[in-house]
C-alpha cells in the first residue's frame, strides 16, 4: 500500500512538473517577445543591460536555490549525527555546512545586487515602454522567478520520493 501511495504521489509530481515546464515555455516565449520590443525601443547599451539582467536573474536565483537545497541536506545530516557517528564524518559535515553557509551569504549579496540592477533596468524601460508593456515586463520577471523556484521544489520532491520508493522496494524481500 505504501509503495502504491509513493508511486501515485510521484505520478502527480511528474504531471505537475510537466505543467510547470509548459508554463516555463510560455514564459520564455513572452520573454522573447519582450526582448524584441526592448531591442526595438532602447539604445544598444541599454538593451545589453537588460539582457545581462535577464540572464543573471536565472543564474542567481538558480544558484541561491541550489545552495539552499544543499545546505538543508547537510543540516539534516548534522541532525542525524549521534555518538556512533565517525568524528571525521562529523567534521566533514561541519566544514561543508560552514562553506555552504558562506556561499549562500555570497549568493544573497549577488541577489541584492541583482535587485538593484533590476530597479535600474526598470527605470530605463520606463522611459520607453507603455504602462502596459512595463507591467508585462514586471510580470515576466516575477513569473520567471516563481517558475524557477517551483521547478526546483518539484525536482527536490521527485528526487526525495524516488529515493524513498527505491529504498522501500529494496527493503521488501
UniProtKB/TrEMBL annotation:
Cellular compartments annotated: Cytoplasm, Cytoskeleton
Superkingdom field: Eukaryota
ASD2 domain segment(s): 1-173
One Pfam family in the UniProt entry: ASD2
PROSITE patterns found in the cross-reference section: ASD2
GO terms, biological process: actin filament organization
Keywords: Coiled coil, Cytoplasm, Cytoskeleton
Coiled coil: 90-120, 144-171
GO MF annotations in UniProt: actin filament binding
Xref: InterPro entries: ASD2_dom, Shroom_fam
Major location (coarse): cytoplasm
GO cellular component: adherens junction; apical junction complex; apical plasma membrane; cortical actin cytoskeleton
Assigned protein family: Belongs to the shroom family.
Protein name (database record): SHRM1 protein
Lineage: Eukaryota, Metazoa, Chordata, Craniata, Vertebrata
Gene symbol of the encoding locus: Shroom1_0
